[in-house]
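Aim 2 progress. For LysR family transcriptional regulator, the working sequence is reproduced below.
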Amino acid sequence: MEMQHLHHFIVTAQLGSVGKAADELNLTQSGVSRSIRTLEDLLGLPLFKREARGVSLTEFGRQLLPRAQSIWNARARTLNEMLAYKAMKSGHAEIGLHNVFAYTVAQDVLGRFSAENRDVDITVVTRSDPELSRRLVKEELDFAFSLFVPGFRDPRLIYESLFVMPCGTYAGVNHPLAGGSKLSVEQLADCDWALAGSTSLRTTFSAFFTDRGVMPPGRLVQSSSIALLAQLLGTNAFLTILPDPVAQSPLLVDRLVRIDTVESPASEPEGGLIYRPDLIRTPAVAALMDRFRELAATIG
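Predicted structure tokens for this construct:
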């Protein structure tokens, strides 16, 4: 099996057309078709169903696609690392950051590391888990620094627990309930909420109320951006859940106030590093992972 056969298969699957794939690859249509047939003959399985307006994957093709993408991504990453060494660079790191860290506690680590390692290129992807885990499985990232989703662990990855993150209920400083007495669960349910995180956070948030026999809040805005969340809380009467170190970061500390509650939907999730056990790490990646381990010791 040659890499070019996998590449032609991936592009054709993504575009749904041999002709479009040929244009994208700067090849003839017959050349792409021949490459795919070679791959099908090698596997002994049909990968595409030919249709009037293009092609679609067979069940075998759907099984092969994520594996082919992982192989192709690994090849690309290896080539990029070797080219970086050739260019006298110390390497390249592609990392994932949970959304709540992207604009707050992680920026100092990244800034200092970049200043001290000017020959290291860093690419940062901001998402929540399990999206970060999915990207790690595909070898699109070297590692991730994230909050962990309760009950979720991909068996192909290592989840290195480094801290338990204390969280609280917060509002903008001008919120009518700021500075008031302890709010009951019923009062919290009557408020408008804005959350930053994955759909799993929304699920656990709603379960907090239903488990106590209370209807969950009727108005809930969810965003992956902490910066947008801060704007929403500053101009609207929203409550939110945030890790305490994030709410107390320079970006947010003067804009938010912690709400006193009888019970809070805020939990204390684990967090730390997520990575593949079989991925070869360059010295630059290993050093950056150690910087995040040091950061974790300060925020738990």
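The chain has three domains: 3-71, 89-164+270-299, 167-258. This observation will guide construct design in the next reporting period.
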